[in-house]
Specification:
The chain is an alpha/beta fold and 329 residues long. The chain has eleven helices and 15 strands. Helix 3 crosses helix 4 and helix 3 packs across helix 10. One of its GO terms (cellular component) is cytoplasm.
Amino acid sequence: MKTMQIRSYGEDAKFEVAEVEKPEVKAGHVLVKIAASSVNTVDTMIRKMGNELPLSPEAPAILGMDFAGTVEAVGGGVNDYAGGDEVYGCAGGLADLPGTLADYIVADCELIAKKPSNLSMREAAALPLVAITAYEGLQRAGIMPDQKVLVHGGSGGVGHVAVQLAKHWGARVYSTGGGERQLALIEKLGATPINYKTESIEQYVNEHTDGVGFDLVFDSVGGANLANSFEAAALNGQVATTVAMVELDLTTAHFKGLSLHVVFMLIPMLHNFQRKEHARILSDLATIVESGGLQPVLDESKFLLEEAGQAYARLESGKAMGKVVIDNS
């Protein structure tokens, strides 16, 4: 089968076409003909940093985590899938799991689910990593109807899903963005847009919460922005973040009695830990999508498998609006 591989990691790491043996299905897995895959920030980090990240596969490597496609064969013990089923998931591209920049993937059934029936393969491929991340963060933070929820970075990959899920679960949603296009998308998704470049935290907390603060803050920006999340949260509020690799003074969080939830959705893949949760979440997400509660946003760009390098460059450019998707076949 055709794959796109990188032979060594680094800033200038290039993807090259490589023919390899088509993988054979094994127990508990399905062989999937990949129709589309999407690019995530963690994919670009692996390509650049390689062995500096403990989750990177050994080079030469087939990267890519998200995919959508059609089941071609099922392994022993698999009862929930049959040939011809359309599925989606996040099941490769790190550690010892071959990735999705390929014609086929042998995917663990505990990391996939049946594709939402009302999405194209491209749309479905855009969802798994970002949607599981948003779902897990909001649920761990105990989201409830009528809460005031602030999503930092609501036009981004994880953020645009978090906005929609929070709204689906009955919250009143607000979201920060830094440009006209970003703010327009946030509003289109059903949240009240906040321009963090022109409004201070104190200003938007006063305007939207009468100075009380938000019940739940979902921070898809993280890093130094976590301090802003603490400042925007209400007393005894909940903060969920997807980027906590930062040294930070927790004084504000202490005096507000905040609860912090750190989301790292790759744990089940890396450690074979509670993988069934990903299958369950993906199945629930499919139901939400089919009910009209979630629609992925795709960047206008289009790339073939052989153009994987250009797809990665598109995401790294910061010019993409929505998920960057690759057409594998």
